[in-house]
Amino acid sequence: MTVTLKDAAAISAMRRAGRVVAEMHEACRELVRPGVTTAALDEACAGILDRRGATSNFLGYPGVTRAFPGVLCASPNDVVVHGFPDDRPLSDGDLLSVDTGAVVDGWHADAAITIAVGEVDDEARALIAATEAALEDGIAAAVAGSRIGDVGHAVQARAEAAGFEVVREYAGHGIGREMHEDPAVPSHGRRGSGLRIRIGLCIAIEPIVVAGSPRTHLRDDGWTVVTADGSRAAHFEHSVAVTADGPVVLTAP
Ligand code: MG
Q: What's the 212 CA to ligand 1 centre distance in angstroms?
């Protein structure tokens, strides 16, 4: 495992990339409604990357079967992560997770949100709220001197307190010159376990929370991950820098 700590200059460069990601999320929140396609969201986000002089760390990401085809992952309902943007219109009541990233001056940012399409049911609202709260608790635990297991524990405890489970087969990650760096940052864990968190550590914390069983299944396209039981998933992610003043969310507006 090679963990690279970032200095203040690197963190401010990542913050610039993070603002572009936040702008893409904001555009998606504004555009999403029944009838809109995820291909349209992808196009809008590609335009933002262009205008900001940023590049995509998602488009062309190598996979086993093919390179990733969009600047964002669009994962509706039972899709857990890595869904392709496509031409199917969204429906009233859908849950849509949008995961996207940007590169500015060689520094990466990566974040995800889950958006309610039109009017969603109570379970969907609770799932969104629990996942977002789990991310907030995970961020609060990312302080110098604590450990990666403390982050996972905080995320898992919050999700489970709401009656849901976290997906364990996909984890957050270090981020910097690469989108995926060491260490892995699971959304579950034991207090006091794992790598010691130090000032300059930059990580993407990304709880994926499911309404049913956390078991997942990979579709034949080699990318799209769905829940094995068809239950719905929500996904929130921020890229976070650990500083002397505590955790700084790099992908905030
Ligand atoms: Mg990520």
A: 22
pLDDT band at 93 (very low <50, low <70, confident <90, very high): very high
Domain count, the chain: 1
Could you tell me which of 4, 25, 3 has the C-alpha nearest to residue 249?
A: 25
Ligand 1 mean position to 205 CA, how many Å? 7
Tell me how far the alpha carbon of residue 97 lies from the centroid of ligand 1, in angstroms.
13
Sheet bearing 202-205, strands edge to edge:
181-185, 172-174, 202-205, 238-243, 246-249
Say if residue 197's pLDDT is above 90. yes
Mean pLDDT of 161-189: 98
Q: What is the CATH number of the domain that holds 47?
A: 3.90.230.10
**Would the pTM count as exceeding 0.85?**
yes
In a domain, 21, yes or no: yes
